[in-house]
Amino acid sequence: QVQLVESGGGLVQAGGSLRLSCAASGSIFSINRMGWYRQAPGKQREVVAGIASGGITNYADSVKGRFTISRDNAKNMVYLQMSSLKPEDTAVYYCGARLLSQKGYLEVWGQGTLVTVSS
């Protein structure tokens, strides 16, 4: 069974930094794309950043210049380095992946990690 587990969330003051990590485990042949998503209270889940297997990245306009996504293909991990955090960044952050497993192509989500930015 494929599983994604996030870590690194917590409480940070505005202007501070956090690094989120996501580890994929299980019977995985390849990971096409991994990304980070977030959901703030009362709002829909939105894309924060994504990275393809070839290394191409994309970011939401709201985080460009502040967040950096990276991946370690050998370890099946993806990271999100967040800096210059704002209270508006407060949300549950989810790791998501599109991957090829023994059962075929799957879209898998982690359980989420809470990031709270205080003013």
Uncertain stretches: none
Computed Rg: 14 Å
The number of distinct β-strands equals 11
- Distance, first to last CA: 40 Å
Sum up the overall morphology in one term: elongated
Secondary-structure class: mainly beta
Q: Specify the helix fraction band.
A: under 10%
Average pLDDT reading? 95
> Helical element count?
0
Q: Give the ordered list of helices and strands.
A: EEEEEEEEEEE
How large a portion of the residues is in β-strands, by DSSP E?
Answer: over 45%
Note the main sheet: 7 strands, mixed
Question: Can you tell me about this structure?
Answer:
This protein is 0% helix and 62% strand. With 119 residues, it is mainly beta. The strands form two sheets. Strands 2, 4, 5, 6, 9, 10 and 11 form a seven-stranded mixed β-sheet that branches. Strand 4 and strand 5 form a beta hairpin. It is elongated and about 45 Å long.
Describe this structure in a few short sentences.
The protein has 119 residues and is mostly beta strands.
Topology summary:
Elements lengths: L2 E5 L2 E4 L4 E8 L2 E12 L6 E7 L4 E3 L7 E6 L4 E6 L8 E11 L2 E6 L3 E6 L1
Parallel strand pairs: 2-11
Antiparallel strand pairs: 1-3, 3-8, 4-5, 4-9, 5-6, 7-8, 9-10, 9-11
Question: What distinguishing features does this structure have?
Answer:
119 residues, mainly beta, 7-stranded mixed beta sheet, 4-stranded antiparallel beta sheet, 11 strands, 0% helix
